[in-house]
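Design request, tokens follow.
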């Protein structure tokens, strides 16, 4: 059973039946805050109502918004006004990779971009790094069908800067959103607002409707994990096995950057992250 709502705990069973629940007393003591995405054991007490008996162990959790057991992220990046931050994008990708999350990059507002070449450059760079990249112009319906048709599993969360078109894209992917909200309100939950996280069941996976900015946090185990988070670097073999791709002689990653075989901004962002660990960089 998956928890759809944490504000007024709403559980959905495998057959799609929903129950408004209350928590068994010891849950708050043992678990603390329950989260959307939690897998729970519950007992039905009345038609449409139940009691949560146990919260199962989480594979991971996001800090803000509070979502547990996340499989992947849609990272929304606006290529037109307001132009999003490439540095923040790469930080999100690094943290997501270290958390073991799948990531799909969505380039939004492609119909309003001034330079098509900049979109092509971004698309090439992130595909080279191993990320699926989608181009969308949501008001025109461009790219929506391609996103919807891809098979996924688990819980997926949208993240992106303010104004990148996250809500518009969500409404395009989940056109039945208002109908689901009204259904829940009829069984006592109240109208859905952007203050709470909610899960929508799509084809094979869940999509989280999350309010505001999504914050990711992870402890960096070692400097080597920063390198691992830039998978395009692995295509090059440096002179020294322990090369940090910075000031070392014979660094093939630096040479590839100079030959424009790697995105210069990706390398710069790698160096900035590296400098937080190694002062000489």
């Amino acid at each position: 059973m998956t928890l759809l709502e944490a504000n007024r705990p709403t559980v959905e069973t495998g057959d799609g039946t929903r129950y408004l629940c209350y928590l068994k007393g010891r849950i708050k003591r043992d678990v603390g805050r329950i989260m959307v995405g939690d897998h729970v054991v519950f007992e039905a007490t009345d038609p449409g109502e139940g009691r949560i008996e146990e919260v199962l162990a989480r594979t991971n959790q996001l800090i803000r918004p509070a979502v547990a057991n996340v499989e992947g992220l849609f990272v929304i990046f606006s290529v037109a006004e307001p132009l999003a931050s490439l540095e923040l994008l790469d930080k999100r990708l690094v943290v997501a990779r270290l958390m073991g999350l799948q990531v799909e990059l969505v380039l939004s507002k492609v119909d309003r971009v001034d330079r098509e070449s900049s979109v092509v450059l971004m698309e090439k760079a992130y595909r080279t790094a191993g990320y699926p990249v989608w181009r969308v112009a949501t008001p025109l319906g461009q790219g929506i069908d391609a996103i919807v048709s891809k098979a996924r599993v688990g819980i997926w969360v949208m993240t992106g800067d303010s104004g990148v078109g996250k809500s518009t894209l969500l409404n395009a992917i989940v056109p039945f959103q208002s109908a689901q909200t009204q259904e829940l309100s009829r069984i006592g939950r109240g109208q859905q607002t952007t203050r709470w996280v909610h899960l929508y069941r799509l084809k094979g996976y869940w999509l989280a409707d999350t309010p505001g900015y999504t914050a990711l946090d992870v402890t960096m185990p070692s400097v080597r994990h920063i390198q691992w988070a830039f998978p395009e670097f692995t295509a090059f073999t440096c002179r020294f096995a322990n090369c940090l791709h910075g000031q070392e002689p014979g660094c093939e990653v630096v040479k590839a950057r100079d030959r424009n075989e790697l995105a210069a901004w990706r390398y710069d962002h790698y160096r900035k992250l590296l400098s937080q660990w190694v002062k000489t960089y």
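Comment from the thread starter after seeing the answer: thanks! The chain has a mean pLDDT of 83.
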